[in-house]
Amino acid sequence: MSEPLTLIVAGELDQRTGGYIYDARMVEALRRQGHAVEVVSLAGCFPAADTEAYEQLASALEALPDASHVIIDGLAMGALPEVIAEHAERLEITALVHHPLGDEQGLSEAEQQQFHESELTALAAVSRIIVTSRFTQRRLQALVSEYAMPFRACVNVVEPGVEAAPASDAPGPNEPIRLLCVATLVPRKGQDLLVRALAGVTADAWQCDCYGSSRDAAYADRVRQLVEASGLEANITLHGECDEATLIQAYQQAHALVLPSWYEGYGMVVTEALAHGLPVITTTGGALDETLPEGAGLKVAPGDVAALEQAIRRFCTDAELRAELRAGALARRETLNDWQAAGAAFAAALTQPPAEPEALYSAGSQFAADWLSLREAVDFSFRSKELPREAAKWLNARTPAPTLVDLGAGRGSNMRFLAPLLPMPQHWTLIDHDAELLAQASASIDAPAHKMITVETLQASLDSLNHAALQTADLVSASALLDLVSQHWIDMLVDHCVNHQQALLMALSVTGEWGFTDTQGEPLIDDEDHWLLALFIAHQRRDKGLGDALGGDAHNALVAALEGAGYRVEQASTPWQLGAGNQDHQPLMQALIEGWAEAATEQAPEAASRIAEWRERRARAIAEGEVGIWVGHADLLALPGDDSAPADTRTGEV
Hints:
By secondary structure, the chain is an alpha/beta fold.
């Protein structure tokens, strides 16, 4: 691309943090490739944007001619979605996301939600998104799914490069181990944890130099007080921010990098250390588990001071381990990408055609469509056919042409299953928040049957049932929805059905149980499976946009509410039973493994390595045909009973 580019950042570009260094390197690379790049630095408070920040970003974008190409760092745009939306149609905007703003350490749950929703709203308007790690790519997908917020741009991964450097020397005999920590002094970086861990390691075995600006004064004071209280002033030096030459010298003099972060979107200092042949002692927080390759360092769960202390002690006292890890770091040093390659990848990402305004879809749409396609045949095999037949009898007695509503319709699988079992003609209203999936659903009606089936779609959230189609429906249905909803939502649904004397048909509601089976179909007992299931169940109960989710308890909660309202309820147990070695089931089983592992990692990011080991072991066993999977589901049909009429009908009141 030959058009001029504008990069907008919060504050000055020459700041010595990983994100700003990445941005500056990309500017250098693009200019070397012949692009004219203007850098605009914004004043004001970020990411919690104040009035000055708002005015600065708005002015910067207003000054650009129509169709200008602009790259906006996520720190500068995430809290100002209204400014982005105002200019998104006339400008070609690329968002550069280092990590989601709501993943910063020390935020309250409400602040996290506010940042996530704000950033996703801003990202929904842009033409392109570039992230710096595959972890962040997956994290954005997970957030889009969790918050059910649409976006139209694909997410491109451009990992940082590294500057070639001479290898650092190994420690000599009886020489104290020189540890290096390069990180801004903010709670997410965990220097307080490092001081507490070092306090348990014999002081004459090590020295630790910490470089990084004090961006959080209160936190920096706390770290200094910890150093003093631990009597480690002679061992730990907090140097503050330094220039590049000083930092290169610090790498050259060190024997290992220590990065105790709770979370990183990539962790550039890890690859910088590897470029010097330095082993790394770090955590599994965020992308760090992937950034540090096995054999080049030691990883512990974020926040685990005892494990960090043990890792540092082992490194300081075990010469054989140090030599092994240094060899691993030196080997990895030969495979690192340089900044030139990273710049070329960044430029290539900028040449991709921008998303069309009319092509709005959830960033998870394609993933969701793939998942729904995978599960459809299995759903059809295991869900109840008897309950829809009972519903058909009730509908036949009620109307010659039933109207039906499918909640959370996705790509229309539930409608395709039910349509042949229910009376014709039929009119369906499919409700979902995802426009692209609804378009697929509408197009999926077979031509011969279309004369008897009419379909309309409604893109809407399910946080309200005040939709016209729901007021006149004879039967309300849904598939694989209940685990996402709260008790309040269930009560709202039951009240709605009672007030309109509607039947309710819910299929494939998860019961909160799953497990693995052997080649004979017998359950396997495994402690790691039980541990993973517990994490998954906890994740299920997060708020998915409809209140605190009930997860596997939702089916029974709905049954109780319906029976309490005088409905006649029939139930059927409909578990998936995916056989070991069944080639048709293997893609779905692998997708289940990935989904369970991803949910567990979101629930317990500190256990990412353990979860990854579980995922690899179970995925391998499935691929080799050694294990199958069962997943608990239940279906229900609820029909109005004599006692279920609305109060005004039963009493004759108006």
